[in-house]
Description:
Blueprint: H1 22-34, E1 52-54, E2 59-67, E3 75-78, E4 81-84, E5 93-105, E6 110-121, E7 131-135, E8 151-152, E9 160-169, E10 176-186, E11 198-206, E12 214-222, E13 225-234, E14 243-250, E15 256-260, H2 261-270, E16 279-303
Parallel strand pairs: 11-14
Antiparallel strand pairs: 1-2, 2-5, 3-4, 4-7, 5-6, 6-16, 7-16, 8-16, 9-15, 9-16, 10-11, 10-16, 12-13, 13-14
Amino acid sequence: MIFFNASLHQPRRATLTRFASQALLAGLVxxxxxxxxxxxxxxxxxxxxAVAMASPQNTGMxxxxxxxxxxxDAKASLGKFMVTTNxxxxxxxxxxxxxxxxxxxxxxxxxxxxxxxxxxxIANEVLSYPNLAYGWQVGTDQGSTSPKLPATVGxxxxxxxxxKAETTCAPGATCTMNTAFELLFSNTPTPNVxxxxxxxxxxxxxxxxxxxxxxxxxxxxxxxxxxxIYKGAVTPPTGTASWTYVAYVAKTTVTQxxxxxxxxxxxxxxxxxxxxxxxxxxxxxxxxITKGQGNTVxxxxxxx
Length: 304
């Protein structure tokens, strides 16, 4: 397989590098006026920076870049979401730079984000999964960004995610990636210990649809989209317990989405992949990056 699931990181790093320079603060002011801008790619910078701040415009912002040799994760809370660079497998690449910019509107509860990357791989393994997380990230003690999660699968009501996400390879470049939701589960309402008990991914766009941690198990239509279903298990080389892996892979690229995750949960329960007593801890949206140059633009994204 080309892809190995991004949840193999053990666990999401809790050590953060956070500092703000006058230049970065000035950049954030410009960001508020002109919209999202990407960090520059391909440079030699070793700095990892993260800023999350409220502005008079009732907007939260995040800007972070990380490079090979300085892969401490940057993360910050933005309203209903936790945004993180999440470079969990730096040894899979001989060099890389990744930048994440995000802007959250407290008035609407929606977030816009742009992820850019440039990665030279050593092996065909996922380097990182920069993402926006809604809920409690498994393996951390951060708590939840929403009172809706964690919740037992049987008690999850409508959980609707809407917005747009589109990933583009740089002109003339070959990139390997998938843009996807990731749902992680636990056997406890306080999932501060890694690993999860199960994982469900919903792939929106991929350069290799069958390159995941499962085997083809069926096809289903959910919320008007046809998905191939892959089922497997993730057994980390670190020796931690394995967990159930399910991937709903869209047969054709989805950019504009309006998904009720309750429908995916019900389907997986019916198939015996997860249990109604499992706790859904978090819903994440991001891009699993393996190689090449590209960017993911997320706009008008919210969960209700």
